[in-house]
Design goal:
heterodimer; A: 111 residues; six-stranded mixed sheet; 11 strands; 0% helix; 57% strand; globular; B: 112 residues; mainly beta; four-stranded antiparallel sheet; 55% strand
Chain lengths: 111, 112
C-alpha cells in the first residue's frame, strides 16, 4: 500500500501570497491527484498528473516521479482559496486503482 | 450531466439497524469507488469496482460492510448491523478507468 505524506498540515496566509503545499509518496505510481475539499464538505478533483507540470488558472501542480514528490502552488491567493487540499495516489500504484490519501492541508487565506 | 448522485444525503439511525447507502455514477464511467471520511482517519478507500466487478475490497472494515454493483448505473453500500463507530461521511466517486475521479456530495451517517 502506498503511503502519502503532506505538509504543512495547516497554513494561514495573507491574501496575495504565493502558497506551496507538498506531497510525497512511497511507491511508484502512474498518476497523482490533487483534490480540494470545500468547507461545506464537497470534494473536487483539481489535477491528475503523471509527469511535469499542469496549470489551471492560479493553480499549478508539479510532480517529480524519480523523487516521488509533488507540489501544489497557488499564485495570488484569495480568501476563496480557503479549503482543505488533499494529495492522493493509486492504492497500489496502478492507474485504475482506488486512491489512498494524505491527511490534507488546511489552508486559510485572510483578507 | 448531473454528476455522481448519492442518497440519502443524511442518515441518522440507531445502533443495530441496517443502513443502505446508494450511488449513481456518471453515465459512461466504468469505475466506481466507495470512500469513508472520519476526523480520526481522514479519507479511506473501502472498495472499488471496474465494469461492475469488485476489484479490491481490502478496505472494507469487517463483515458488517458489503457493497454491490448490479449494473453500470447503480451501487449500494450496506452496513448490517450498524455501530456508532461507523459514523462518518461516505463518498462515492466514479471515473473512466484511468481518468480523474468525480466525487458525489457524500452521505453523512450518524449511528446513535
Amino acid at each position: 500500500k502506498n503511503e502519502v505524506e503532506q505538509s504543512p498540515q495547516n497554513l494561514t496566509a495573507q491574501e496575495g501570497e504565493f502558497i506551496t503545499i507538498n506531497c510525497s509518496y512511497s511507491v511508484g505510481i502512474s498518476a497523482l491527484h490533487w483534490l480540494q475539499q470545500h468547507p461545506g464538505g464537497g470534494i473536487v478533483s483539481l489535477f491528475m498528473l503523471s509527469s511535469g507540470k499542469k496549470k489551471h488558472g492560479r493553480l499549478i501542480a508539479t510532480i517529480n516521479i524519480q523523487e516521488k514528490h509533488s507540489s501544489l502552488h497557488i499564485t495570488a491567493s484569495h480568501p476563496r482559496d480557503s479549503a482543505v487540499y488533499i494529495c492522493a495516489v493509486p492504492f497500489s500504484g496502478g492507474g485504475a486503482d482506488g486512491l489512498t490519501f494524505g491527511k490534507g492541508t488546511h489552508l486559510i487565506i485572510q483578507p | 450531466d448531473a454528476g455522481v448522485i448519492q442518497s440519502p444525503r443524511h442518515e441518522v439511525t440507531e445502533m443495530g439497524q441496517e443502513v443502505t447507502l446508494r450511488c449513481k455514477p456518471i453515465s459512461g464511467h466504468n469505475s466506481l469507488f466507495w470512500y469513508r471520511q472520519t476526523m480520526m482517519r481522514g479519507l479511506e478507500l473501502l472498495i472499488y469496482f471496474n465494469n461492475n466487478v469488485p476489484i479490491d475490497d481490502s478496505g472494507m472494515p469487517e463483515d458488517r460492510f458489503s457493497a454491490k454493483m448490479p449494473n453500470a448505473s447503480f451501487s449500494t453500500l450496506k452496513i448490517q448491523p450498524s455501530e456508532p463507530r461507523d459514523s462518518a461521511v461516505y463518498f462515492c466517486a466514479s471515473s473512466q478507468t484511468t481518468d480523474k475521479q468525480y466525487f458525489g456530495p457524500g452521505t453523512r451517517l450518524t449511528v446513535l
